[in-house]
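W.,

You were right to be curious about this one. When I first looked at the sequence I had no strong expectations either way, so I just let the prediction run and decided to look at it fresh. Below is the sequence, 492 residues in total, followed by the output.
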Amino acid sequence: MSINYLVDSQQDKNTMKTTAVLLVDDDEDDYFLTKACLNDISDQKFAVTWASSYNQALQYLSEQHFDICFFDYVLGARTGLDLLQIAQDLRVQTPIILLTGRGDTSIAMRALALGGTDYLVKGELEPEKLSRSIRYAIEHTATLKKLKENEEKYRGLFEGSVDAICLLNAEGRFTDVNDAATRLLDYSKAAFLTKNITDFFEDEAQKVVFINKIVAGENVHDFELELLAANGESRYCIIACTRHRLPGDLKMVFYQAILHDITRRKKAEQDLIIADKLASTGRFLRMLGHEIRNPLTNIDLAISQLAGDNLNEELHDCIDIIQRNSKRINQLLTDLLQAANPGQLNAQLCAPENLLDDTLALAADRIALKNIRVDKDYAPELRPVHADAEKMKIALLNIIINAVEIMEANKGVLLLAIRPTPEGCRIAIRDNGPGISPDHRKRLFDPYFSRKPNGMGLGLASTLNIIQLHGGRIEVNSEPGHGAEFVVWLLA
């Protein structure tokens, strides 16, 4: 009966899957004892490879794959902990059990810290304990590998997303952000972790609505908002903020916020609206110019008939007043028509620093009158840009004059900076005036909108029209009380 049992057991063992084992031990007697203990495990089959030295173990680890490894703690001048460190550096995924001649808790803790899965004392080895340790080590390593793969997969989705993804705690403070978030708002990950998401909100009303939803534990969907980047530029986004609970602790709440950048679309929509307004304004002004110039022509003809050498002095003065004001009205109509429709461009290669200096010369009298200090910060070796110099000077002059007029006399500082960009150059014109409120900033380029008591509101509208005709773009960065900066991008 016992003989049949042994035969059946041997047949079962022959059909089992073989577990490849690397046994690292410089003591041959200990190697045979450990191997014998492995062979006494009835429900597992092992193919043991023996490494009798530290260097031989390194060779096997780099060349072969094993299902499990046993490292003896004492390996001549080196230790099994050294080998564990090497295995960790080589990113060996095989479960590793450390063997030692005596129990030592500190060694066990160091082994686990270096990636070991278990720790066994040689003198206490027996088939049942060894079998249990092997099963645990293999299953534990497989579980960790699965978790790591899932973590890497979701981390890849997190980091690879083109949209900004942020994790927030229950108070809305950042706990993690992906690279897209750092690019969107131009802050480092470390800087994000010191802030609350509402710190970036420009609109106080949007901030109140968002906070109320978070406090109430609600999810936020398709919420459009304006955020302020580190460089002072606005970013228009649609945010979706979802509330979650940790599976292990349902009291722990966190939020996942996804920010979809719609800045380009939003600005394109705004530019289109302004372009439509400028087009309708141009049509209206052309009609108005035609209707006004007809009677002006008749007035000029009539005055020409009346003018002569035999007029008395009083009548001569009256005719002169009529002629001068008729010319003034005609010139105002010309200026209005040019502002609404700059016409065709005569684009040529121009040095951006010359464009800005020539424009500055046109405003020199106004700058001197208010005793404004002018600082220049031009990058060296700037590329020429394609521009209609005369029209571009008109566009830049409108910005400079507005800056000069808004600053306080004897205290104003005008900063002009030019930086190269991959497409051309970036021209920044900054003042230290009172700044522009968010409501006014959104309407700056609208035709007929002006912050000046007697302004017509066509200067900046004309500036935008000219820059867009050049294929460039313009942005305004400002906070009330901290001046304003107009940034113009031109193409090379």
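Here's what jumped out at me. The longest strand covers residues 234-246. And, maybe more interesting for your project: The chain is about 50% helix and 25% strand.

Coffee later to discuss?

I.
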